[in-house]
């Protein structure tokens, strides 16, 4: 029995080492991708690697998942910095949103970058527009992953037509609450904005 217990313990320990090694390799690969898009003025890759590991300690998301989110954020134009207004601050908020909204970090990051690239500062701070996402989810009939995947259908034309981000999110909550399927809601809002913005025969 003692030999059996020792053997089982060794198997568990060995399996744990395999998992740790696999996770380390996956993180290294993901961070190597980040390194390909850092310019000479950005913090070193080692500093980003440390920041990702530190963030993962207080996150439900893996370090690999977070590193992939960092890559998406930087490649979408968010400054490759560790401080305020940079990619790590953005990622910190996005991963919390991903956890709360039961989505992937990638989905949460992509939703946020869409807003930043279409509305910019007009959408408010990163924390503010992610809060708007969740108000939409709470008030409408739409999940966070559904919102994240369809947001790009309407934000560009809404921003160009002068529809505020909070107003857009309020409209999305309203139409989904009143029976329009989440998958069609952003298309419906886009068509509505187009019809309002288009010149009429009388114009």
Could you characterize what this model shows?
The chain has 10 helices and no strands. It has helices at 2-35, 45-57, 63-75, 87-100, 105-118, 126-139, 144-150, 155-160, 165-177, 182-197. The mean pLDDT is 88. With 203 residues, it is an all-alpha fold.
Task: Give a concise summary.
The chain is mainly α.
Fold topology:
Elements: H1 2-35, H2 45-57, H3 63-75, H4 87-100, H5 105-118, H6 126-139, H7 144-150, H8 155-160, H9 165-177, H10 182-197
Helix pairs in contact: 1-3, 3-4, 3-5, 4-5, 4-6, 5-7, 6-9, 9-10
Overall pLDDT, averaged? 88
Give the helices and strands as they follow along the chain: HHHHHHHHHH
The major pleated sheet works out as: none
Q: Percent of residues in helical segments?
A: over 70%
Number of strands: 0
Features:
single chain; 203 residues; mainly alpha; 10 helices
